[in-house]
């Protein structure tokens, strides 16, 4: 189960994720900085990957092309992004904020795509592109995205555990 308490602070009744303009502040969507030494090869790897491949093929290529430490770092960033952004997504759903719900779905889709979590990416992309998405549908859509995110996190943790074994 996702635990947004790990990354998203609990808000008191007088607090909100909304900024003064009524929207979630942009810094809620940014990933924490990653060391430049890792970022350059990872970005080059992501940019050079061939066309569509299965999740298993993606994971195998990731492990083949990056050392275990870098794969674990990619998966740690993914985990933190999913935990943080899922909290933001649920806050947007609770506020009925379709615009920020779509923005957060877009950020989650990017995180999912970066690690090859295809079902999770599809669920996020569907939420961000649905023209008829209404505020009353956000909670159910967020629950589906959460379910897909939890599954992706289990798969990522399994891959990380396999890399930790000698």
UniProtKB/TrEMBL annotation:
Source species, domain of life: Bacteria
Protein name per its UniProtKB record: HPt domain-containing protein
GO molecular function annotations of the record: protein kinase activity
GO biological process: phosphorelay signal transduction system
Record organism: Rhodovastum atsumiense
Gene3D superfamilies cross-referenced by the UniProt entry: HPT domain
Phosphohistidine sites (modified residues): 106
Keywords: Phosphoprotein, Two-component regulatory system
Residue stretches making up the HPt domain: 67-162
Statement: the UniProt record of this protein carries the keyword Protein transport: no
């Amino acid at each position: 189960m996702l635990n947004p308490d790990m990354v998203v602070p609990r808000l008191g009744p007088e607090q909100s994720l909304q900024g003064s303009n009524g929207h979630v502040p942009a810094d809620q969507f940014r990933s924490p900085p990653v060391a430049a030494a890792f970022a350059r090869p990872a970005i080059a790897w992501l940019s050079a990957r061939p066309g569509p491949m299965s999740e298993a093929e993606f994971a195998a290529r990731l492990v083949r092309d990056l050392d275990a430490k870098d794969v674990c770092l990619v998966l740690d960033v993914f985990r933190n992004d999913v935990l943080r952004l899922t909290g933001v997504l649920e806050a947007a759903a609770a506020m009925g904020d379709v615009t920020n719900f779509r923005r957060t779905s877009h950020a989650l889709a990017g995180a999912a795509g970066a690690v090859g979590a295809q079902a999770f990416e599809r669920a996020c992309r569907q939420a961000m592109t649905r023209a008829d998405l209404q505020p009353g549908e956000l909670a159910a859509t967020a629950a589906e995205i959460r379910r897909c995110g939890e599954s992706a996190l289990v798969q990522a943790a399994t891959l990380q555990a396999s890399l930790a074994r000698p």
